[in-house]
Amino acid sequence: MIRVRGLSKQFGGVDHGNGSVLALSEIDLEVRDNEFITVIGPSGCGKTTLLRIIAGLIPYDRGEITIDGKPVTGPGPDRAVVFQNFALMPWADVLANVTFGLEIRGTPKDESQAKAKELIKLVGLENFEKRLPKELSGGMQQRVGLARALAVNPKILLMDEPFGSLDEQTRRLLQEQLLRLWEHERKTVVFITHSMDEAVMLGDRVMLMTPRPGRVKEMIDVPLKRPRLRELEKSSAFLEVKEYLWENLRVMQVE
Amino acid sequence: MKQETAEQPVVKSTTAEKMRLPPALRRFLRNNALEVLALLGGAAIWEALGWGLGLQWLPPFSKVMEALAQFMHSGVILANVGTSLQALMIGFGLSLIMGLVVGALMGRYRYVEKALDVYVHALFVCPSIVFAPVFFAIFGLSDASRIAIIVVYAMFVIVINTATAIRTVDPSLVEMARAFGCREHQIFARILLPASLPLVFAGIRLGMGRAVKGMVNGEMLIAFVGLGALAQKYGAQFDAAKVFAIAMVVLIIGLFTNWLVQTFEHRLTSWVD
Amino acid sequence: MKNDALQDWGLRLVVFAAVVGAWELFLSRSQNFLLPKFTEMVSGLFQLWFVDNRFWEALYISNQALLLGYAVSLAVAIPLGLAAGRLRWMDRLLNPYVGVLLAMPVAPLIPIVIIALGLGLSSRVFIVVLFAFVFITVNTRAGVRAVDPSLIEMAKSFGASEGQIWRRIVIPGAMPAIFAGMRIGLGRAITGMVMVELLLVASGLGRLLLEFSGRMQSDLVFATVIAVIIEALALLAAMRAIERRIARWAPDISVG
């Protein structure tokens, strides 16, 4: 379980107000085990900052954040990140990219390659192991990023607008693939998105954030049953939640 | 996957094919026809002007080729090329090592960058040849002064390119590595090093060109050995054909070393988009 | 941010002091009588600038060639680069020669120029042009090529003529690269100026260097070298300042 209490983060400037920005202010959040949370909010609401703090990539100024009771002090084997611009090493082939996390942790070569091949197959890239990232489409590259994250068997998957730079068709296909993978093994997921459709379709709960400074406005339950199928997009429950999100977001956009 | 066509188009035979040249050369000629023609045209104009104008300083192209052939046959050129290349290799080697190390440190650590950038930039932009008298004062007529000049010519472009290369590595790659638990030395070896290769090689290629120039300039000014000395000697004798021939030899050295670096570069950076 | 700037200069001063210190140390151990101490170098500079007339005369003579040669280079290279950038066939025609000129050291050709033009100002000017113009051409061409083709398309869609496209899109767009080429060309021109004077045409600063060198007055040799470096840096800084006022919007790109 991820537990955040009174978390605040400030960028720049040693003293207050001297060119510094309060990115996050008094964030309270609880993510239960095996829960899929989507995070949505306008630019500047600090959602990426929050994700990076949970990932242990940047420090925070006030408050506390614990995972299963232990405070977050840096990156760890219990968490893995999927990046918006894929962050694949362009000089390494698909197999080498997927084994990266395992190699860093000292997993012996044959073991990490076996595990990697398994996941490459799972994301549907079975014949592409020797390909370089430049030979792959955006959607395929992100599937590699997903395989790499899953390879280290994390408890928590942190996804920073993973489908944001893909075209709509690819995005929808990857959403369905992600949901299938998640049904197979329900990790705890924190998923940042700009898309209301995506937020409602994927999440058990949607975390709505407001900007300047970044705060949690509300945690919204998504009363849709799992497994989530495409037809649910037409259901009244889906449209209600989406409409509610839009009403809130539209006001924030104007501000 | 490309679509395979059902029929192959009929291939007309070209001049190159009729001459039975290897396919790679044929392809090269076909793609670069205009450039090759430009060079051949230039040589033809040179030849015509050489005979027509009869100027002392513009011998016909064929005479220059003659001088070049003469050089190849006599031992003169070989000995001097050897002397020149020796200094080039040592000088470039030193530039490479020092350039890469200093550049990497500057790229990685802001303190180093801030401390040295003013000096590196100043030494990079100022005409390197002015250091010739300085090195002459320090090292006299020895090989060391020639090597020192080559280092001054080549090193700083390598430093600057290496520093920029490391500094401009995609930060999301570094973040990704940290997210997966990489420690500092792992980030350097697994991310910074491979990611910076393209720009580093650009610097190495430029440095190579600079080193060749430093080699010749140094020889002409200081040590009076090697190819530079020959150029001086024949210049004093007003033998323009031989001087042009030596310039060509230096040019060939420059093109060859550049090709060498590029081959390495292509093998190591074939992954670039 | 003032603290940062102070800290940076502090670091640079430390490096400077360390180098001077190492130099003095090296001197006290070595047997080389030719090497001047740091203080001797400084006094040499003073002597050069304020006591001896010859430096300023030499500077004037050398810079004649530099200014004329640089001006000629610009007049030749920039139109050539613009043409090569815009006309594909011209680019391909010139390409092999540009490649050769970039790779080939000009120095071996200096004796030939001397044979042709003698030992006067004209040969010095010509050498400066030889050193500088290729780099200016290459950068100008790169600048023209780098202009976003969709901007040209946009202008055409509004009915712009070729001249208008040049004036309003291509030249402003290529400005940063042209300036970069001009800066590199200036450095190369200074190199040419010094090179020919040192090699054959003993006049100006080159002659001073040869003279001091021959008389073993190494403090003056070093001082002259430093003076040349200062001139080069000053001219380039001036160029950068002009550039900043004219072409403020662009990032740093350059070839060579």
Descriptors:
A: 255 residues, six-stranded mixed β-sheet, four-stranded antiparallel β-sheet, 36% helix, C: 256 residues, globular, disordered C terminus
How does this structure look, described?
The complex is a heterotrimer of chains A (255), B (273) and C (256). By secondary structure, chain A is α/β, with parallel strands linked by helices. Chain A is built from 7 helices and 10 strands. A 6-stranded mixed sheet of chain A has the order 6-7-8-3-9-10, sandwiched between helices. In chain A, α2 (94-104) packs parallel to α4, α3 (109-122) packs across α4 (138-151) and α6 (196-202) packs across α7 (236-254). The radius of gyration of chain A is 19 Å and the shape is globular. The two termini of chain A are 34 Å apart. With 273 residues, chain B is mostly helical. Helices cover 80% and strands 0% of the residues of chain B. Chain B is built from 12 helices and no strands. In chain B, α5 runs antiparallel to α10 (184-223) and α6 (110-125) crosses α8. The longest helix of chain B has 40 residues, at 184-223. Chain B is globular, with a radius of gyration of 24 Å. The relative contact order of chain B is 0.11. Chain C is mainly α. In chain C, 82% of the residues lie in helices and 0% in strands. Chain C has 10 helices and no strands. In chain C, α2 crosses α10 (218-246) and α3 packs antiparallel against α8 (162-199). Mean pLDDT of chain C is 85; it is low at 252-256.
Greatest interface: B-C, 56 and 54 residues
Overall pLDDT confidence of chain A: 91
Number of strands of chain A: 10
The strand order across the widest sheet of chain A is 6-7-8-3-9-10
Amount of helix of chain B: over 70%
Main beta-sheet strand count, sense and barrel state of chain A: 6 strands, mixed
Write a short abstract of this structure.
The complex is a heterotrimer of chains A (255), B (273) and C (256). Chain A has 7 helices and 10 strands. Chain A is α/β, with parallel strands linked by helices and 255 residues long.
Question: How are the elements arranged and paired?
Answer:
The complex is a heterotrimer of chains A (255), B (273) and C (256).
Chain A: E1 2-11, E2 21-31, E3 36-40, H1 47-55, E4 62-67, E5 70-71, E6 79-82, H2 94-104, H3 109-122, H4 138-151, E7 156-160, H5 168-184, E8 188-192, H6 196-202, E9 205-210, E10 215-221, H7 236-254
Parallel strand pairs in A: 3-8, 3-9, 6-7, 7-8
Antiparallel strand pairs in A: 1-2, 1-4, 4-5, 9-10
Helix pairs in contact in A: 2-3, 2-4, 3-4, 6-7
Chain B: H1 15-18, H2 23-31, H3 33-53, H4 61-73, H5 76-108, H6 110-125, H7 131-139, H8 143-167, H9 171-179, H10 184-223, H11 226-236, H12 240-268
Helix pairs in contact in B: 4-12, 5-6, 5-8, 5-10, 5-11, 6-8, 7-8, 8-10, 10-11, 10-12, 11-12
Chain C: H1 2-29, H2 38-51, H3 54-86, H4 88-103, H5 110-117, H6 121-145, H7 149-157, H8 162-199, H9 204-214, H10 218-246
